[in-house]
Amino acid sequence: MIDLSTRYLGLRLSNPLVASAGPLCEDVGSIRRMEDAGAAAVVLHSLFEEQITLESEYLDQHLSHGTESFAESLTYFPDMGSYNLGPDGYLEHVRRVKAAVAIPVIGSLNGVSTGGWIAHAKKIEDAGADALELNIYYVPTDPEMSAVQVEDMYVDLVRDVKASVKFPVAVKIGHAFSALAHLARRLDQAGADALVLFNRFYLPDFDLDRLEVVPRLTLSSSHELLVRLHWAAILYPHLRADLAVTGGVHAGEDALKAMMAGARVAMMTSALLKYGIPHLKAVRAQMLVWMEAHEYESIEQMQGSMSYWSVREPAAFERANYMKVLSAYALPTEGGSGAAERPA
Amino acid sequence: MAKRPSGLTFLPSWVREAGAPTTVVHGLLSYSAMSNATETALTAAPSDVGTHVTIDGNEAAAHVAYQLSDVIAIYPITPSSTMGEWADQWASERRPNLWGTVPSVTEMQSEGGAAGALHGALQAGALATTFTASQGLLLMIPNMYKIAGELTPTVFHVAARSLATQALSIFGDHSDVMATRATGFAMLASSSVQEAMDLALVAHAATLESRVPFLHFFDGFRTSHEVAKVRPLGTGELRAMIDQRLVRAHRDRALSPERPVLRGTAQNPDIYFQARETVNPYYLACPAIVQNAMDRLAGLTGRRYRLFDYAGAADAERVIVLMASGADAARETVEHLRARGEKVGVLTVRLYRPFSAEHFLTTLPATVRTLAVLDRTKEPGSVGEPLYLDVMATVGEAAAVGSAPFEKAPRVLGGRYGLGSKEFTPAMVKGIFDEMAKPRPLARFTIGIHDDVTHTSLAYDPSFSTEDPATVRAIFYGLGADGTVGANKNSIKIIGEEMNNYAQGYFVYDSKKSGSVTVSHLRFGPRPIRSTYLISRATFVACHQFSFLERLDVLRTAEPGAVFLLNSPYGSAEVWDHLPRGVQEQIIAKRLRFYVIDGNRVAREAGMGGRVNTVMQACFFAISRVLPREEAIAAIKHAIEKTYGKRGEAVVRKNWAAVDSALEHLSEVRVHDRVTSAVEMRPAVPDEAPEFVRRVTAKMIAGEGDELAVSAVPADGTYPTGTTRWEKRNIALEIPVWDETLCIQCGKCVLVCPHAVIRAKVYPPARVEGASSCFKSAPARWRELGDARFTLQVAPEDCTGCALCVEVCPAKSKSEVRHKAIDMMPQPPLHDQEAINWRFFLGLPEADRSAFNTGQIKDVQLLQPLFEFSGACAGCGETPYLKLLSQLFGDQAVIANATGCSSIYGGNQPTTPWTVNQSGRGPAWANSLFEDNAEFGLGMRLALDKQAEYARELVTRLAPALGQLGSSLLAADQSTEAGIEAQRERVSELKWALTGLDSAEARELLSLADALVKKSVWIVGGDGWAYDIGYGGLDHVLASGRKVNVLVLDTEVYSNTGGQMSKSTPRGAVAKFAAGGKPGPKKDLALMAMTYGTVYVARVAMGGSDAQTLKAFREAEAYPGPSLIIAYSHCIAHGYDLRHGMDQQKAAVQSGHWPLFRYNPELAKDGQQALQLDSKAPSLPLKTYAYNETRYTMLAHSNPEAARRLLDEAQKDIQARWRFYEHLAGLPVNETASSTASEGDHD
Fold first, then answer.
1. Which residues of B are known catalytic residues?
2. A212 touching B, CB under 8 A?
3. N or C: less crowded end of chain A, CB within 10 Å?
4. For position A322, what pLDDT does the model report?
5. Using 50, 70 and 90 to split pLDDT, how confident is the model at A325?
6. Interchain contact, A56 vs B1136, CB within 8 Å
7. Nearest Cα to B1139, choosing from B865, B881, B824?
8. Contact B1197 A81 (CB under 8 A)
């Protein structure tokens, strides 16, 4: 019997497949179906710092606009009892998901600044979440701001959130750092219980017809996995914190690679959106088939097996490898177009 | 006088058998016969008497009505709408009534519908109520006769309002309630907010006991909208006042198949008369029942009321008789005069019907020599107004039979006052008393106006004042958009509820929906406040907008030594030199204490944008010291939390920050000892304005309309058009600026501009000579015009700064895309130069209409709009359609306009946007009512057609004399503009020719000659009219086949009365009366009209396709029968920044919420499919469109489950409807389909 179980954030999970924060996690029914399909845990969609503020201000602005100006129409909307603004709706969602499923439920908080809003972390804990994923996404557009200042901001935030809660906190970051390993260690030292690699962002695209900038987020594909494998493998030996890979996990092989790089869990959203929730079952089956064929007994057996320290040539993860990849591309591939293009 | 039996001893025996009590029951009731559940409900809630609340009159009345009803039928009408809104809101909050069940609240399609539904509910045994005013009450009259005739207990609560006569007025008087005095309803008048609550209860109690239905009324706005500190009635009082056995008796009389009866029979001459007299005992008993109820209320609350309340000297010789809010001003004056030893008094009428002569006479002092009976209504042609006649008859009869308390019958004068919320002040009351003291007083008079025509008005000294020196009187001038009124409502609540003070707030709004000025009047102090009039002596004046100083005399009311708080961009050191001369003079002369704060900066820095309300409120409390500073700040912050808390913490924090920052930035100004300013007040209109505008309109614009004498005002309500052009409101902070190098001259900005402030002209290059150096032009992109120039010009003083034009502009800079062919720029630095450019631009020739193709937007933009500078909301979605109508057909249009937004921005005084072209031609516009607009427009068509027919007959009869001209007139083709113009020339010739003919027929034809020129009748209104109250008429008019064009400006909600649900409101959208999101789908008016097969129908959205909109207007006008255009109109009641209105229209189309199509029966005649879909299949999820708007998102916030479900259903509606339309559009053409439309074509 192959043991797929893993430990993540101090939680024993039946397998390493976790549904990551995405639109499917906004619906209790979908989460139930993910559990049925074999998700070992679920990360809820994010509660956004700006969203709380903006929704509140937007609502206020438009409920107030035009009021008390004209004698016949002193207001334009009925007065509602409450608006579910702030974290209340989210916390209610946490409670309802917890009540609906047996798998661990990880809340998600998305923001950049330390301040009053981190109190929401505690509220998510009190609502019953098993852990928190702190999703930090900051675009430092100010040329006056140094890398150190940006990193300090991340570290301060993690420290403050950790100080405010008792349950485990994972930190989800991007990879655009000049010294990612160093930052990872600082986050580790600040108390992060896991690092989630990596964020995927909305990116600005250009609409040529309207000459407008439009935000775009496409579903991930397997090729995006590589950068995550790369960094999981590098960071694995250096951190106390668990690692999670998210982005580009579409098939059993992808999940297995993540494990070997050192991740405790492999998270999926795009593949579920693309192929449907039952795809989780297929991925799990693919993993089992491969493990059986290669006579693996457990997931934990392979975790970190191809990390920086565990491979014969750590240089494969370094700059030396660059040369190798380039030359590999220069080599002809069997039956490929490259062969045909080679001079005779 | 004979002793009148009390209570219900005159009840017919079969009613008594049904369980009604035979004696009046006082005090607490025995509940032994009630169900357990009801008993629990009735005994659970403790009495909350003793506490105070600060509320307005509408809420006070609704508080009682809601708790004592189980069926409530409503329909919005100002100023009563909020009563229905409260009822609806409480029901949506599941608040129970006195019996522990939530009342059923239903919005009907009209007040007529509400009365009908109510009648039915009453017949079925419900305790039922409604709320209304003005025309709404008139629509209820037929049912009121029935309800009263059947002796059915109910209470209608009315915020009394003027009736539409020479003009509509939303303001208060008693014309509406007086029109119902023959219905058989008892009429009970409240004078104040407290009374609106107390007498509401008296009415509900008395109607059950007397079986006479009650109309409980109070003055619209003055009482309905006055915020005052009152003691609320708790459930204990309500329970004690309502006799449960009477409730059961009412139910026992209900229609039920268990004990069937027949009601509503038809009676013949044999018994109708007798039957009519059967009700007399009930009316005779009613006054005593009411007084009993009042006495019981006094026992419970200590507040004592009488049918007629007298206040004043016991030996008064002069007594004023009146009812409702004016009575409080009169009482205040009487107290003042009595202190000076004058023998005066005031008699307040509370129960007006049934009028108890006995009670009236016993209340009146026997010493009275002169009575002045004041009516707040006018009955032209009568001997006197109703209350006067009642008093006259009462006094006369008593004197004749010797039952009068007085030795000599007093002289009775009759006066009118306060029509349409005209102020009624102690000075006027004093003027009346002075007149009464004269040996030969005016027998019929008016007070408060200057009647220089029939000389009815009394003179009075306006400086007379009875203001209590212990009362703080504060006036605040604000903009609607800056939140001043909201903050003041908060302040009055703080003062009322945190302090041991009496408090009163009253708010005056202007007639414009954009850039509107508000004036708040706040009084508070240790003694009860009866001042039911505006503050004329202020101890505190705050001006929340610096620019007002040049437009309004804000210090006019400041008392010597008063405090003046100014929101100023200039600090305390430099502000003095920026003040207009008049302001400096008054500050010095009145020795005002003067404070400034840069409220805009503080608000902006706190993230509040232009809303300076919180900042100025904090300053008010800090300076006025009504509360210790710390306490005041804490109270403001608490109020902020209470008001904004549920909108989120961020909003609360932002407001708190504004409060703290305000106090840091407030400073006192050292007042100079001499006037230094050269800045003068701006004239209301320029000198070149027409005489009427300078003499009359300008006074209204300047806020001095009260000073206009009767002779200054047109007698029949007829006013000149084209007057908005003289009212330069200067309200935009930013205006569009044109970059002629980028512009592609597409015309989209001109098309969408709601206020016609951005215009284009093409003209010969030589005409640019004489322009200022900054006047811009570019080569015109019309090849056929050679070297002509093109200019896009903005009217800087008329723009509202909505930015719709910038959003719709497609031309972007190639090197910096944020820069468009028009960009918004700060207005002040541009103002002077652009004002000059605008004047120059107006002098350029208007487009030669024959030179352009009116079938394309690019050309239509050049046509002169005959609808300009309306007071509609900035970014209004309706007005661009009206402007387009005016550009295309304005010089031949007669417009029937339903009451609503379009009748307000189109017809509210002082100025109108409908205007004329250089020939003096333009739309002729009239508003009849809300419910009858389609019929009104049809009537115009009938008249025009009849006149044209008669004129043609006359031409035929005069053919020998007219020769070729006659036959040309009859054969004229007027299907094109050129054809119409040619006919106009022929008619000119005809008139010339007719002047030479001396015959009766020639004179007849001369007076009707213009009828030979084609006229275009447009019937315009909103969805409230077309889908609901006017639908029956609209349907009939569409079926008539007559050539009328109907334009429905569909905002999907009752915009003008504040966002109540109409049948056009989409499923899932939140509106008043649909707080849980509208559960049902939007009515498909277009589809219904199409089923006739003879009506041209188009559904348009300018932002979806401007070309399709243009096509629809032109086809509708060309179609020989009735046409219906339903135009998507984005609206402030949708809750988003209207600068994105056109994008949102596009999204509405793309999502399939608003499919575009045209249905042209003419095509069917030619064997083509009549229905053409002009938009593609839905390609955007409904959510993407809907969730840009607060009307949808607020449900997602407040009830996510319901929002999701309704959105799902609405999405399915869209798919189903689109499939249906596709099916219709693809049906084989019915060869036999024929139009009867040509029946109406007499052109």
1. 78, 111, 161, 1056
2. yes
3. C
4. 60
5. low
6. no
7. B824
8. no
